[in-house]
Amino acid sequence: MAVSRVSYPQIVLFGDSIFQASASVSDGFCFQAAMQSEVIRRFDVVNRGFSGYNTSNALSILPQVIAPPAPGVPQIEYLFILLGANDACVQLPTNYQHVPLDRYKANLKRIISHPNITAHSPNIFLVTPPPLDQIRITELDLARGHPSASRHAKISAAYSEAVRQVAAEDPGVTLIDLHKAIMDTAIAKTPGFDATGPALGDPESGERGYLEQLLPDGLHLSAESYRIFYGLVQPHLGAEWAGTAEADRVAYVLPDWRDAPWLEEDAHLKGSSI
Q1: Is the pTM of this model over 0.85?
Q2: How many separate domains does the chain show?
Q3: Residue 210 needs a FRET pair 20 to 30 A away by CA distance; which of 87, 106, 252, 264 works?
């Protein structure tokens, strides 16, 4: 007798090193694990983060990592897209990750409208790249042998704004503004900083402030930043079971043990005489 296999629907994290690193545990927190815990037994959280990739790279591999619906292919219910930190690199002889802003926006639109994705009709979330601590980036890039900083705070902010624009133009896309959330936290935790002037991390302000704690290498997220990120996405998870009287067991792919079909068989065995 053939046994049918159960396929769990998926939440896919598609992006660059910020998603790749979200599987790591730092200071007792793991973004991907927190998300998986939130949706356990309902969805599989699949990490498709690729360190160093820009949107052009992501488009080239998309057919290899996201298959259209077919027998044996899990349904993608949620798709989070986080790309842009590498597109925003400035053009240097020692770095070739840069993608011009207009092409970046076009690439994002091509990703969210790709037939392999639209065939799943997922809930799509576009995430802005985080802010940049150019002061720290400059220190590290010079030490690595770059002639100057590979990323600039103002340029990175422009790419985050581009994500906001793409999301606003598509009613089927939800914006997750990670850039704003991290910068707002950094400003709130930097006493006396004048937020009306140049940003934290911008050489023009000359101040890193609390951004130093949120972006240790100037680009990638600390555990505290991943907690901020998770706080942005968590409210979008669980609409299928939130507010129900038995939310701890609603929408399971396989039934809760108290609701499982074998209970009738167990009850029958208990009532029978041997």
Answers
A1: yes
A2: 1
A3: 87
- In tens, the pLDDT along 31-76 reads 999 999 999 999 999 999 999 999 999 999 999 999 999 999 999 9
Task: Note whether residue 271 is domain-resident.
Answer: no
pLDDT for position 207:
97
Tokens representing residue 67 in the block: 């298959």
Domain limits at 138? 10-239
Q: Which residue has the higher pLDDT, 227 or 251?
A: 227
Give the number of residues written for the chain. Answer: 274
Is 254 among the domain residues? Answer: no
